[in-house]
């Protein structure tokens, strides 16, 4: 994972959860476009952070994470996506569920909440394969320690370090029921990650009594192209 | 020495000619939606033609199953940049569904389970350009791909091919549907790269 920090003069602002389209042009004119969630909150003016996962046989991510150098320019378009967003006015409680790199847009939400010193009750349930693969861990632990109503739960699906006290299995109905807010509290749920993950979590949240229009989904994954 | 430039993947020229600007080829079938997958029992499923039409119509799943159907092979293009070539569907032509409806409406709003909507000109869903599809790749359409039935309008970005479609509402004027309200293009022609409003 690599975070690119972009200076975007004249950036019109964005909402937490939105993304940008990056376009790369090769010498022969060939262009490739990809979407990346904005990991920084709207409260960071003029500067955008994109956290990019390097996909080994990917077309674009190896370039962005390995070749691109500081000072270079990129073609960027955005912000895009008006539905998978959160701002403090939308209130809560807020239940954020992340699978792997799906945590990126949810990090923008959490950072925005912190920047506004919001006390909206918020829980992040973050599934990763191992503790090394938890992105933003130090920052998340620090924000959770503030005691302002943000709680962070990790579950590691492939390997756990000695003495690990977090979750150690894939997210399932029992975990969602235990960690999430009761459906009667009408939480706003935002789920982001690979499609099978999002599909399973979204269906389960609906089965647990959350109305479908309180469950927002964003599905991620390598483009495979 | 200038920094190394982006090169991109070695390109298959034949496929490249079939890809609209900014698209890449995928061999899998990504799923994107705004919310959970709706699940409607077939016993409760209906398809309706409503709105600015002299004779509104409705079919149950059983009645729908008796309509003439076609096998359609087309390329599809998602606004999130993936394209899939030669996808095979089975569906009922929207021309069949609109047969005999007396209308002077210029536009339709497709509406779906879960509240999704998308708007299209009537001219873009008639004359063999659109279907209500219930099978993909020879199998019944899976719920996460829009089953039991979705609208299929391959010449426009695939958000216009409304999943879980339950009807078409004919309207005199164009109105934004779900994604169009969130900044996506009202028309959505992949060959003119009409992804977002203002394109």
User: Could you name the ranges of chain A where pLDDT drops below 50 across 5 or more consecutive residues?
Assistant: none
* Largest β-sheet summary of chain A: 5 strands, parallel
Quaternary state of the chains: heterodimer
SS-based structural class of chain A?
alpha/beta
- By CATH's scheme, which homologous superfamily of the largest domain in chain A applies? Nucleotide-binding domain of ferredoxin-NADP reductase (FNR) module
Topology order of chain B in helix (H) and strand (E) letters? HEEEHEEHEEEEEEH
Number of strands of chain B: 11
- End-to-end separation of chain B in angstroms reads 37 Å
Task: Indicate the CATH class of the domain at 22-27 and 44-174 in chain B.
Answer: Alpha Beta
What's the count of strands of chain A?
10
**Share in β-strands of chain A:** 25-35%
Provide the helix percentage of chain A: 10-25%
Structural class of chain B: mainly beta
Give the overall silhouette of chain A: globular
CATH class of the largest domain in chain A: Alpha Beta
Second CATH tier, the architecture of the domain at 22-27 and 44-174 in chain B: Alpha-Beta Complex
Chain pair sharing the greatest interface: A-B, 39 and 36 residues
Low-confidence stretches of chain B: none
> How many distinct helices of chain B?
4
Into which percent range does the helicity of residues of chain B fall? Answer: under 10%
How would you describe what is shown here?
The complex is a heterodimer of chains A (225) and B (199). Chain A has 225 residues and is α/β, with parallel strands linked by helices. In chain A, 21% of the residues lie in helices and 29% in strands. Chain A contains five helices and ten strands; from the N terminus they run ββββαββαβαβαβαβ. The longest helix of chain A is centred in the middle third of the chain and has 13 residues. Chain B is mainly beta and 199 residues long. Chain B has a domain of 137 residues: Oxidoreductase, molybdopterin-binding domain (Sulfite Oxidase, Chain A, domain 2). The longest helix of chain B is centred in the middle third of the chain and has 5 residues. In chain B, strands 1, 4, 5, 8, 9 and 10 form a six-stranded mixed sheet that branches. Chains A and B meet through strand 2, strand 3, helix 5 and strand 10 of A and strand 1 and helix 4 of B.
């Amino acid at each position: 994972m690599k975070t690119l920090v972009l200076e975007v003069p004249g950036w019109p602002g964005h909402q937490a959860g939105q993304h940008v389209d990056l376009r790369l042009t090769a010498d022969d004119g060939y262009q490739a476009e990809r979407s990346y969630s904005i990991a920084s909150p709207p409260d960071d003016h003029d500067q955008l952070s994109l956290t990019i996962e390097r996909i080994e046989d990917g077309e674009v991510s190896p370039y962005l994470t390995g070749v691109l150098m500081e000072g270079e320019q990129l073609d960027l378009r955005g912000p895009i996506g008006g539905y998978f967003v959160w701002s403090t006015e939308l209130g809560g409680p807020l239940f954020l569920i992340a699978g792997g790199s799906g945590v990126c847009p949810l990090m923008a939400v959490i950072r925005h909440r912190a920047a506004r010193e919001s006390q909206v009750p918020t829980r992040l349930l973050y599934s990763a394969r191992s503790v090394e693969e938890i992105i933003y861990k130090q920052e998340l632990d620090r924000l959770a320690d503030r005691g302002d109503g943000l709680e962070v739960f990790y579950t590691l699906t492939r390997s756990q370090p000695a003495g690990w006290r977090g979750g150690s299995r894939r997210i399932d109905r029992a975990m969602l029921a235990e960690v999430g807010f009761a459906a009667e509290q009408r939480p706003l749920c935002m789920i982001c990650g690979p499609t099978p993950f999002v599909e399973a979590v979204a269906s389960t949240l609906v089965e647990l009594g959350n109305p479908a229009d309180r469950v927002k989904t964003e599905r991620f994954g390598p483009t495979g192209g | 020495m200038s920094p190394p430039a982006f090169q991109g993947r070695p390109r298959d020229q034949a496929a490249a000619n079939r890809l609209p600007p900014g698209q890449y080829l995928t061999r899998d079938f990504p799923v994107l939606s705004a919310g959970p997958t709706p699940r409607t029992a077939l016993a409760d499923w209906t398809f309706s033609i409503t709105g600015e039409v002299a004779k509104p119509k409705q079919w149950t799943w059983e009645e729908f199953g008796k309509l003439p159907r076609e096998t359609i092979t087309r390329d599809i293009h998602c606004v999130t940049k993936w394209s899939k070539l030669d996808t095979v569907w089975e569906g009922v032509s929207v021309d069949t569904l609109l047969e005999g409806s007396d209308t002077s409406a210029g536009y339709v709003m497709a509406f779906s389970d879960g509240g999704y909507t998308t708007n299209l000109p009537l001219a873009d869903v008639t004359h063999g350009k659109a279907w209500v599809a219930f099978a993909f790749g020879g199998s019944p359409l899976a719920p996460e791909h829009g089953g039991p039935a979705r609208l299929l309008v391959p010449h426009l970005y695939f958000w216009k091919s409304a999943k879980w479609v339950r009807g078409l509402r004919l309207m005199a004027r164009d109105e934004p549907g779900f994604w169009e309200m969130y900044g996506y293009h009202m028309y959505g022609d992949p060959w003119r790269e009409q992804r977002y409003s203002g394109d």
